[in-house]
Every structure is written in structure tokens, then in C-alpha cells.
């Protein structure tokens, strides 16, 4: 049975992706910074008959938490097939002025960018033991520098100094990691789940989390012919 770890999986797109991978026969470790919310998520999945899951306490902004989580996973499994870097925050939008704005950017980068690097680095040894390791960085179309230059693009006005550049930086991490692992069986991609109804946007979006999860899961389950070092949404490849 292939094993996957999803960060921020107690709710939203992460939770739905866990459900989707469980339905596809994966064992899923649900990362949750709040163990009680993680336990509730596991109970909900088990109530649906999706029993091959476990909660891992994990705050990606906390080095000790990440170290403990990696040790816990390593004690439970010899290999990890999939890592989905899903944990993310929007921060304040629009950002406050002055130093508060800088602090907002710092917090958003600490989660969306540095957090992904921290947990990936910690889990790389376990991923390297899998035959076909897959890493999905959950990004956003708003990270595209190319699209940000197009006034006709629907998110043209969605420009800020925190969330958007944190996901652009995450995309560069995808590129870097894919390059570093290019002579291996790894596939590393950035995936935009689409504008989705979750707590991140106060449930204002139309997109169904189950549809978002299918897109994310597709790149977690790539076969050996699949792409690496690229950026996708539901419609296909996105420009960097
Ligand atoms: N929703 C959209 O329209 C949309 C569009 C494009 C991309 N995305 C991306 O999709 C991903 C999932 O977002 P979502 O929409 O599902 O939002 P969500 O419902 O707010 O879920 C975010 C998850 O991340 C967790 N998280 C936040 N900070 C964390 C930390 N420091 N350590 C570990 N976990 C942490 C949250 O935990 P708590 O429950 O403890 O807060 C929660 O489980 C994010 O990376 C987001 O940027 C979302």
C-alpha cells in the first residue's frame, strides 16, 4: 500500500485530498497542527469506512514539531511515496501598512514557503526510499509572474506582497527541487487547485473542495511517464 503525507489535512482541500487518496487505496498520514482537529478528521474518515489513515501532529512553522513529525512517520513506515505540501494561509488581504504589513508577509512566507521547505527536507530520506516518490506543492494560479502581466487575466488585480509572492517562491522551490532530483524517479510539481470554497476565503468561492482534491491527487499519483518540475491547474500547464 502506497503511503502519503498531507500537511494541513484536517480541513479544506487537504482533508478532501486525504479522502480522495484513501478512496484510491493509499494509506494517508493527515498532518494537523492541532491534534484534536486532526483526530476529528480521522474519525470522520473512519466513519465513512476509510480506515487507512493516521494523524500526525505537525506545525510547519515550528522546527521541533517538524522534526518530531518526521521521527513519528519514520517509526511507522519505512518508505513514504507521496508528500503534499498543502498547509497554507492567506494572511491579511489587503495587507496592513508599514511594519504590520512586513510582519504579515513574514508569517505568510513562514507557512507557505519556509514551512514547505522544512517538512520536505525532513521527509526527503523517507521519500527517497520509495520506488516512485511524488511531491506536490499546492500553489496558486496567482503565483504566475507571466499571468500577472496580462490585464485581461481574471486575477490581474490580485496583487499583494505576501500570499502571491509566497506561492511564486514556492513555485521556484518546485523548480529547484525537480532540478535537484532530475536523475531520480521523483516527480515534483506545483498544482493550483482552483478558487475553492474553504476557510481560506471564508467559504466565498464556488469551487468544490472535492474537485480541487482530484486535481491535487492527480499529480500525487503520476506514473513514471508523468511530468516533473512543472505548474498545473485543472486545465493543464500554467506559465510560471
Ligand atoms: N481555497 C482556495 O481557493 C485556494 C486556491 C489556490 C490555492 N489554495 C491553497 O490550497 C491550500 C489549502 O488551503 P485551503 O483552501 O484548503 O485552506 P484551509 O481550509 O484554510 O486549510 C488550510 C490548512 O492548512 C493548515 N495550516 C495553516 N497553517 C499551518 C501551519 N503552520 N502548520 C500546519 N498546518 C497549517 C490549516 O490548519 P488549521 O485548521 O489549524 O488552521 C488547515 O488545515 C493552501 O496552500 C492554499 O494556499 C487554496
From TrEMBL:
<dbReference type="InterPro" id="IPR036291">
    <property type="entry name" value="NAD(P)-bd_dom_sf"/>
</dbReference>
<keyword id="KW-0560">Oxidoreductase</keyword>
<protein>
    <submittedName>
        <fullName>SDR family NAD(P)-dependent oxidoreductase</fullName>
    </submittedName>
</protein>
<keyword id="KW-0521">NADP</keyword>
<dbReference type="Pfam" id="PF00106">
    <property type="entry name" value="adh_short"/>
</dbReference>
<dbReference type="GO" id="GO:0016491">
    <property type="term" value="F:oxidoreductase activity"/>
</dbReference>
<comment type="similarity">
    <text>Belongs to the short-chain dehydrogenases/reductases (SDR) family.</text>
</comment>
<dbReference type="InterPro" id="IPR002347">
    <property type="entry name" value="SDR_fam"/>
</dbReference>
<dbReference type="GO" id="GO:0016020">
    <property type="term" value="C:membrane"/>
</dbReference>
Amino acid at each position: 500500500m502506497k503511503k502519503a503525507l498531507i500537511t494541513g489535512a484536517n480541513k479544506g482541500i487537504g482533508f478532501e485530498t486525504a479522502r480522495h487518496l484513501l478512496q484510491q487505496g493509499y494509506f494517508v498520514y493527515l498532518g494537523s497542527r492541532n491534534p484534536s482537529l486532526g483526530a476529528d478528521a480521522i474519525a470522520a474518515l473512519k466513519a465513512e469506512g476509510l480506515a487507512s489513515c493516521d494523524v500526525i501532529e505537525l506545525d510547519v512553522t515550528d522546527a521541533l514539531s517538524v522534526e518530531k513529525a518526521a521521527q513519528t512517520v519514520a517509526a511507522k513506515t519505512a518508505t513514504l511515496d507521496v508528500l503534499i505540501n498543502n498547509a497554507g494561509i492567506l494572511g491579511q488581504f489587503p495587507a496592513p501598512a508599514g511594519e504590520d504589513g512586513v510582519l504579515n508577509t513574514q508569517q505568510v512566507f513562514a507557512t507557505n514557503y519556509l514551512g514547505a521547505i522544512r517538512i520536505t527536507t525532513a521527509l526527503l530520506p523517507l521519500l527517497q526510499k520509495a520506488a516512485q516518490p511524488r511531491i506536490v506543492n499546492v500553489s496558486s494560479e496567482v503565483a504566475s509572474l507571466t499571468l500577472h502581466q496580462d490585464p485581461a487575466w481574471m486575477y490581474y488585480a490580485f496583487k499583494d506582497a505576501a500570499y502571491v509572492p509566497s506561492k511564486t517562491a514556492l513555485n521556484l522551490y518546485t523548480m529547484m527541487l525537480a532540478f535537484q532530483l532530475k536523475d531520480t524517479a521523483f516527480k515534483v510539481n506545483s498544482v493550483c487547485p482552483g478558487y475553492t470554497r474553504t476557510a481560506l476565503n471564508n467559504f466565498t468561492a464556488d469551487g468544490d473542495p472535492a474537485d480541487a482534491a482530484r486535481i491535487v491527487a492527480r499529480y500525487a499519483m503520476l506514473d513514471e511517464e508523468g511530468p516533473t518540475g512543472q505548474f498545473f491547474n485543472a486545465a493543464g500547464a500554467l506559465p510560471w
